[in-house]
Design brief:
Elements (H helix, E strand, L loop, with lengths): L16 H5 L7 H14 L10 H22 L2 H17 L2 H7 L1 H7 L3 H19 L6 H17 L27 H5 L8 H14 L3 H14 L4 H13 L3 H14 L4 H6 L13 H8 L1 H5 L13
Helix pairs in contact: 2-3, 4-8, 5-6, 5-8, 6-7, 6-8, 7-8, 10-11, 11-12, 12-13
Amino acid sequence: MSQTFLPPEWFKQLCDPYAVLGISVSADDRQIFKRYHTLAKLLHPDRHTKSSNPDQELATAILSYLINPAYEQLKNRHKRLIAIAMLRSDARVLQQEALSVQNAIAKEITEMSAPQAELFYEEAIACYAEAQYKSLHKFSQVTQQISILNLVYLQLHKPDLFLPQKAVRIIPEVEVKPVELTLSEKTNVKPVLTNYAQRHYQRAIEYVKLANWALAVQELRDAIKLEPNNSDYYALLGLVHLKQKFIGMARVYIRQALKLNPQDSLALKYAPGLKIQPGENTNPKSMAKAVSIAALLSRFSQGKSSQVKC
């Protein structure tokens, strides 16, 4: 298969490898690899054997000529910094007003404070990423919207934001001393299963204490993926959104927490202020729709045909 199988304008999107993968420009090594692994499985030829042959060829072409080169660029830290520098240059050249007209989300971000813009941007990228490869023929449209969003976001941040920084430990390091076990003790040792969801939740609590809302949201998202029926995760995520004055999203997550556990203390504490009545039901379909940025985008959808709905 040759590269000419793809429309020539699609290759221009490699100028923004972050947009091709559907991740934010602040994504770290773990997030970049995780997204690439997800896309590699999603577009693997074996998943399209039952579909039409053109779809199978298109999936293979997108993976080979767009996603793989984008990942090769971002997995190398030096090349990643070069990509950020080039995107910053593009952001300076393009007028912010022009970008905002093309993307309603971008316009909303420009009117927010820095902490609000940070969280809103991450939520928007997550929404676009979910829709990006559902229709292979619409991939280019969604990717273009992500690229515009990235440029607006870079216009709002300091140049040194993406320089390598020393990691800050948020949980004190505990010295662990080796323990010698006798033979009888060793035979009775049982493996301890690690609860990764709780680890994400505990980290989220620490980030909340530091008012680092973007990282708290990321940790809680990961916790919910592992344990989707734990009300504590939804309640805390609702609180994080409330702290950022995203009332609609806060209401969605607090409702879901109470649906899973009507006695959840954190959710009960903030439910009255969000006008949530005890025993109020939540439709799972409306919950999923409201959680996505599409619910937020609906305020701007009139007259903006170029906007992509998630």
